[in-house]
Each structure stands twice: as C-alpha cells, then as structure tokens.
Amino acid sequence: MKVKLILPALAEAESPFWRPIKYSLFPPLGLATLAAYLDPNDEAELCDQHVENVNLDDEPDLVIIQVYITNAYRAYKMADHYRTKGSYVILGGLHVSSMPEEAALHADTIFIGPGEDTFPVFLQDYKNGKALKRYVSRERSIEQIPPIRRDLIKRHLYLVPNSIVVTRGCPHHCDFCYKDAFFEGGKGFYTQRVEDALSEIDRLPGRHLYFLDDHLLGNARFAEAMFDGMRGMNRVFQGAATIDSILRGNLIEKAAEAGMRSVFVGFETLSGANLLQSNKKQNLGKDYERAIKRLHDNGIMINGSFVFGLDDDDESVFDRTVEWAVKNGITTSTFHILTPYPGTRLYKDMYEQGRILTNNWDLYDTRHVVYETKKLSAEALKAGYDKAYKDFYSWRNIWQAAKTHEDLKHQIKHLFYSGGWKKFEPVWNFLIKTKGLNQMLPALEAILSKVKSNQKDLTWKHSQA
Ligand code: SF4
Q: Mind listing the pLDDT tens digit for each residue in 186-199?
C-alpha cells in the first residue's frame, strides 16, 4: 500500500513577514510517529510543505494529513484533491479535534485526540474494508509505542532534526491553550517509560536535542530519572517548562547537569488579573525574577513567551513587557496576540460574550486580532505587538540584555543566540534555499555548550547554595 503523510504549510507561509527559518526547525514528528504503525511492506512518504514542494500528481492509496488551525484550508484543499483522485483520506491534529464536523466534510475518516491508540485500530479496520468515519482516542498511553519512523525524515532540510517528545500533554489547564480540547475524554498528561525515552535519545545522532514536550518537567519523577540517565551522554538540549517547576525542588539543576542549555518559559503576562483570567494558576504569585536568576545561574538561556491583549492589558503593556524582558536578560522572546482557538474555554467565553469577530482560521495565527478587545483598540494591539518585536530585537536591547549576565561567556552566547536568531535572515534564507541548513547545527551546539568560567563549572546546585 502506498501511504502519503503530509504536513501542509501554515497560512503564515504566505505572509510578507514569513520567516522561513522559523518553520524549518523541526520535522513533523507526529506523522513520523504514526508511520511507525504501518506495515513494513507499505511504501510510506512523509512530506512537509514548509521545507519542500508537495507533488500532488501522484496516486497514493492512503493520505494522512495533519491539520493545524492556520493550515486547515490548505489541508482541506489537498484532502478534496486526493479524494477526487480516489485516495482514501484521513485528517487528524489539533484543529480536527476542535472542529470535527468541519473537518469531516473533507475526509473519509477523522481522528479526534492523539492517535496512538486509534490509528492501529483504523489500519486494521481499513484493511478489512470496515474503516469508521471517526475514531476518538480514549485509551492514552505511550508506554509501548514502536520506534518513530525517523528514516522518513529528510534530516538535511531542518536545523534541528533531533526533535523528540517523551511525554504527551500537560498537567495544567490554561484557558487559551489547545491542550484540554485535544485531550478531552481521557488522560491529559502521560509519559513514556524512562528506559524507552533514554533508548530513543541514544538512537539520535550528534549532540543536540530539542524536546518538544509541552512541559518537560511536568512529571518530576519521570524527568528526574530521565535526567539522571542522561548524565554522561554528552548531550545539549532545549525544552519547555513552567515557572513553578523551575522554582520547585532541584529538578532544574538536574536538567542542567543532563545538558539543558535553553528553556521555553510561558511567562505570558506580568499582570495577576490576566493570569486569573487565563486560569494560569501555576504562574500566580510566583517570583518570575527568582526563576530567571536560577536558570541563568545554571547556564540556561531563556526563550520567554508573552501574550498581549488579555483584558487587563492597556497601551503601556508593550513597553513594560519589553523593558522587563531586557532587564532580566531574557535571550529570545516570542510575543503573541491573544488568540481564542476554537475548542478552548477562552473561545467559548468570548463566543458567549459576542466578542469573536471572525472565524477565518487563517487569521488565527497569533499575529492578528480576531476578537473584541477591552482596554486596547485592535489597532493599538496590533501596532504594539509589532513594536514589541522590533524593540526587543533591536541591537541596543540585545546588547543590554546580554550585559545582564555576570559571566562574559554567557554574554557572548546571548549575543550570538539572540542576534543569530533574528538578525541574519538573508543568511538563513540562503542556507534554506541551498539545502545547507543542517550545516549550522555544529554552530548551534557550540553556542549551547556549557558556560564555564576559569575552568570552574558554573552549574549552580541549589542544595549547596
Ligand atoms: S502550561 Fe502551557 S501547555 Fe500547559 S496548559 Fe498551560 S499553556 Fe498549555
């Protein structure tokens, strides 16, 4: 059987502000994970439209398309195209779980929730000519999943081919997050077995890893055992964690010892009222600056995530947030305009209040205002968001933020990482065009190497501080 797995490009790919590098970082791991359930005799092809042209002239037996909100229209078009040609088309992913009726119009079968339990059942049904219209995930476990089909990933097209996920979901329930909608009806957070995670890590070539887990420190026992197992593997890695998990116990020190060199942190807002509005309880009353200091003392760079447009935000929020991020030496920042994704509690609340302005999913890219704002006009929100990016990534502010680190090597790393990410777009574009992106990996590994000062390990052990 010929099987084609497709990740269609997001609508942002057509924006004048499109940054190819941002979408050439990670391969589509979810599709490669599903491919592992195919029969070894099946002929599988994995296509990521962000990094390659997708040939639509072929005639696969089975087409599997992953749908996010801003690639939904493109995904539906592809699905319709292949169905007309006689292929059997299945759709799955975050947007399908949020909008099943909409997606079902373009598919022979849709998948609600994660696919590890339902996809093997579908394959059996399909082979027996009895596939259902809809499969809903209920039994959640990744304890015994087959190894991801990494052989299908075109590694040379990505800056970070070694992406990895060892957990699913998140223990928290933020109102604006997709997580609860996607995992509805079953467990919302679960992990691999530690030994399986370590074997997967061991199989990956090179040094660098990027954990794409929503919350790598979400299960402290699992994370601690995995970090212990990783000591001595000579890895450097990046991942995501919450403020409270960074402040609690000594897990973050264990992560640093295992090779964590940068972490994505959802600060989201500096306003307590906004945190309450978002049900982001895990951030409430937490000392952000203490968490930042702890990360920096452990040689871990920070990618801070911030959301603009929550109801307590006024026109001063943009300057205040940028100033705070620079003053605290945040290495890179990801700013978002609040976006009420369908299926989330935020969308339901806004819908009931009559605040949703459009259901054009292409605009749900966190760069457009799609809801009625409160203390800010939509224009001020958009302009402030654009200005925040410009200001944060000005050379002046990159330098100011770098200078907050005590250690010179940490300052230099900050400059290279932040400047390299945002200030060398033509170089990235050239590397992508010439398919040489992966050659930059050693440079990334070098920037992420351990900060040492006078041969003294700066990794800070809280227990001894
Ligand atoms: S902590 Fe992050 S992943 Fe977890 S529910 Fe909140 S936004 Fe979603």
A: 999 999 999 999 99
If one compares 433 and 338, the residue with the highest pLDDT of the two is: 338
DSSP 56-121: -S---SEEEEE--GGGHHHHHHHHHHHHHTT-EEEEESHHHHH-HHHHHTT-SEEEES-STTHHHH
Residue 334 lies in a domain: yes
Domain limits at 65?
A: 2-136
Q: Is the CB of 167 under 6 A from ligand 1?
A: no
Helical H runs in 158-250?
179-182, 194-203, 220-230, 243-247
The DSSP secondary-structure symbol of 338 reads -
Q: What angle do CA 340, 342, 344 make, to 5 degrees?
A: 70
Residue 149 lies in a domain: no
Looking at residue 57, which CATH number applies to its domain?
Answer: 3.40.50.280
Same domain, 241 and 199: yes
For ligand 1, atom 2, the nearest C-alpha belongs to 214
Is 67 in the same domain as 183? no
Cβ–ligand 1 distance for 242 under 6 Å, the answer yes
